[in-house]
Amino acid sequence: MNRFLGTTLLLCVAFGACAFDANQAEPKPSGQKDSAACPKSDLAPREVSREGVEYLQRLRKNTPFGTNSFDLAGLRAGMGSRRQPNGKDIKFIRVKIGDIPCEWVLAPGADPDLRLLYIHGGGFVSGSGGFYLTLAAHISAAAKCAVLLPDYRLAPEHRFPAGLEDCIRAHEWMMANGPTGPAPAQATFVAGDSAGGSLTLATLLALRDRRKPLPRGGIALSPTTDLALASESLKTVHDPIISAKTMPVFRDHYLGKTDPRDPLASPVFGDYRGMPPLLIQVGEHEMLRDDSVRAAAKARADGAQVKLEVWPGMFHVFQSHEPLLPEAKEAINHIADFMRASLPAHGATPGIPMAIFKNYKDIKWDKILPDLGESSPEICILHVDPPSKATKLLIRTPKGIHIRKHWHSANETHTVILGTPEFACDGKRIAQEPGSFNFLPAKMVYEAWVPAGALVFITVDGPWDVNWVEGPPTAADLIK
């Protein structure tokens, strides 16, 4: 496919609604480097490829979108087009989640139970899953996963938080439904670029706040994270893709009168405690660069596990420009590596080893709280991986118990086999039915109400270690 699809089609970069004073002069191009130094990141030092240098030079010769006018109709026509790759045996499966049109993309060899929700960009006002089929196919091939592209509602017809609610709904649906129909996911991830990167982080924050099951990780490409417009790069970086004059338009279309400091509109203001691991990728030469840097810093300060990659010589959502630059191929491989590293130690699935139940009565149980005698919850360690100390275990409850505030030192995935335990944080409770699973991030404080006869299978990313915040449960905590 020709790299130059026209200025509008180059907006597959799916810019978010970062804003800039429309009356303020735009930063001027200054050769290969912008006026602000490239921030430090977790990316190893590297030289920009020859192809990358030449492509950026060609981009610099174009007129950034919105320099002379804001053509919403043209933008929607371009980003609403369908860009289907020519690769053999790639599967495209259209589905609907209520009123939300969606499409699955599966490259050859993709695991239909390892699922990635990819949220397209487009400034919250444009874009479609069909425009991202090629990028989705690249990610599916690299990560061996099924990718779901939702066509969430767009502003200004549907302002914040309509699109976000669609993304939350899509993730919940994806956990229980795959490309071939109803089937529980073995693991899920959420990713997106620019406006979709903002929605990625907002979706994770909302799921955490609502006590919904979290994905194994979040991946944000060039995300919009601050609609209060405080990022310095908005003033210092000459973006070859988008004119700064357009930014107030995107913001106002999306937010209307909503406070731009709302964490679900501007995730840089979010509280990232209890979030799954995050990968954030951004280019050196884009106005949204510091939105990524600041969001990563905020998440780290809150205790989240974050990898920030600032790619030298790259531009907004460089991973989506065809044919792929060497940097784009490597970045997509990094996404796949991140997903693999975020899975449970022995594969994607929460992994109930059903063979152990053939001799279920022969399992040796140890009491977790010996002081409770026969009423104590019981544990059976099934497997410990020597290098990482990652653990698989079963817990059962001969008698119902209220487990007061505690935290675990490693990430856990709980799969309910019997009973309906409830988990809570900040007073919000969520019940888990048999067959469901939930990702519990490390070091986040929980309570649990576990009925008599419950059986839960748990995979832990490291040594299994319970730390009681208010003291271990006593006989007074047994459920009568």
Summarize the structure.
This protein is an alpha+beta fold and 480 residues long. It has helices spanning 50-60, 72-79, 133-143, 162-176, 195-209, 233-236, 247-255, 289-301, 326-342; strands at 91-97, 100-106, 111-119, 145-150, 177-178, 181-182, 187-193, 217-221, 278-283, 306-311, 366-367, 378-384, 391-396, 401-408, 412-418, 422-425, 428-431, 437-440, 446-450, 455-460, 466-468.
How many domains make up the 3D coordinates? 2
Q: Could you name the CATH homologous superfamily of the largest domain?
A: Alpha/Beta hydrolase fold, catalytic domain
Query: How many H/I helical runs?
Result: 9
How many strands in all? 21
Query: Which band does the percent of strand residues land in?
Result: 15-25%
Could you say what the CATH topology of the largest domain is called? Answer: Rossmann fold
Order of strands across the biggest sheet?
Answer: 1-2-4-3-7-8-9-10
Secondary structure topology:
Blueprint: H1 50-60, H2 72-79, E1 91-97, E2 100-106, E3 111-119, H3 133-143, E4 145-150, H4 162-176, E5 177-178, E6 181-182, E7 187-193, H5 195-209, E8 217-221, H6 233-236, H7 247-255, E9 278-283, H8 289-301, E10 306-311, H9 326-342, E11 366-367, E12 378-384, E13 391-396, E14 401-408, E15 412-418, E16 422-425, E17 428-431, E18 437-440, E19 446-450, E20 455-460, E21 466-468
Parallel strand pairs: 3-4, 3-7, 7-8, 8-9, 9-10
Antiparallel strand pairs: 1-2, 2-4, 5-6, 11-12, 12-13, 13-20, 14-19, 14-21, 15-18, 15-20, 16-17, 16-19
Helix pairs in contact: 3-9, 4-5
